[in-house]
Design a protein that fits this description.
335 residues; 17 helices
């Protein structure tokens, strides 16, 4: 059993450590927009780094942010936060950021992938840290505006200055993390647990389970509309209950019939073979096999990834879902 992780709060972080420093946020997607705006509203000097022609350029500028190229942002900055996709970070760093990383600077990440798997190797005289909010960007922004923050992870990979942790905590405070609590971890633990959770449970596991349940009902002669509602649509109800109060709250909230079915059927679905498959997935993540395959897939133009994406988009659960969701105007995104 590992020791409980240390948690830091507002009183443990000094925002003044970042005053008079410039922070470059590279990327303006989900996390990039939230970090940039939260840091700006915390009174810090922020510049957004984007490639010329980026569709986000005007959006960031219209939000009142200073926007420039990635190279110029990295040149100006004391702190450089990498918020572009994992598969592009390595090449972008080498071409635009590495030549501007001088002694005393800090390289920041919101996910440990490229550091843990050796895609980026920072100079020995710069700090390398991770500040990873445990929520999508719109939640990070919304919680900041409400003054409650989003739980955040912090990890130190390289402490050249001797102040990497207090500086990282200051950044976490700037985006609102210390209001909720900042949990200290490592690049390894964050990366490997994140990838495993995505593959075995949150994305790969859930989507495969939903499709398998849907296909089982349809193959047995039930209408695909009914299969869709029971195996996909109502997933949100259950996940929301689990999100709010854990598995016990979900079981308290559903019927006794559903709770009994949970206890009796769950072990038949998640068998010893499934658990061993999970261990195999984890081993492939731990030894770098999965990361190597994913990076190679990107290097050759992502043919398998794109083909699989198209194949899944054509699945009956997607086509019937579009028809049924058209009956639910409350699901449509508001402008």
């Amino acid at each position: 059993m590992t020791d409980r992780l240390r948690i830091y709060y507002d009183a443990d972080a000094d925002l003044n450590r970042l005053k008079g420093k410039r922070i470059a946020v590279i990327g303006y997607g989900s996390q990039g927009h939230a970090h940039s705006l939260n840091l700006k509203d915390s009174g810090l000097d922020v510049v957004v780094g984007l490639y010329k022609g980026s569709k986000s350029w005007d959006r960031a500028r219209d939000a009142g942010l200073n926007v420039t190229t990635v190279a110029e942002a990295a040149e100006q900055a004391d702190f450089v936060m990498m918020l572009v996709p994992d598969q592009t970070q390595g090449s972008l760093y080498q071409s635009e950021i590495r030549p501007r990383m001088r002694a005393g600077k800090t390289l920041l990440f919101a996910h440990g992938f490229t550091i843990h798997f050796g895609q980026i190797q920072a100079p020995d005289d710069v700090d390398v840290a991770m500040i990873a909010p445990k929520g999508p960007g719109h939640i990070v922004r919304e919680m900041f505006t409400q003054g409650v923050g989003t739980p955040t992870l912090v990890a130190i990979h390289q402490n050249a200055s001797g102040n990497a942790l207090p500086n990282a905590l200051a950044y976490a405070k700037g985006i609102g993390g210390t209001s909720a609590g900042v949990i200290e971890t490592t690049f390894r633990d964050e990366t490997e647990t994140d990838l495993f959770g995505e593959q075995a449970v949150l994305c790969g596991g859930i989507s495969a389970l939903i499709k398998a349940g849907f296909e089982t009902l349809v193959e047995a002669g039930y209408p695909p509309e009914m299969a869709y509602f029971e195996c996909l649509h109502e997933t949100k109800l259950i996940v929301d209950l689990i999100y709010q109060g854990g598995l016990s709250y979900m079981r308290y909230s559903v019927s006794d019939t559903a709770e009994f079915g949970d206890y009796t059927a769950g072990p038949k679905i998640i068998t010893a073979e499934v658990r061993e498959n999970m261990r195999t997935i984890l081993r492939d993540i731990q030894d770098g096999t999965w990361a190597k395959n994913w990076l190679l897939e990107n290097q050759v133009g992502r043919p398998n990834f794109m083909a699989t994406r198209r194949q899944n988009a054509d699945h009956q659960i997607e086509t019937i879902g579009k028809e049924l969701r058209a009956m639910m105007p409350w699901l449509k995104k508001r402008a």
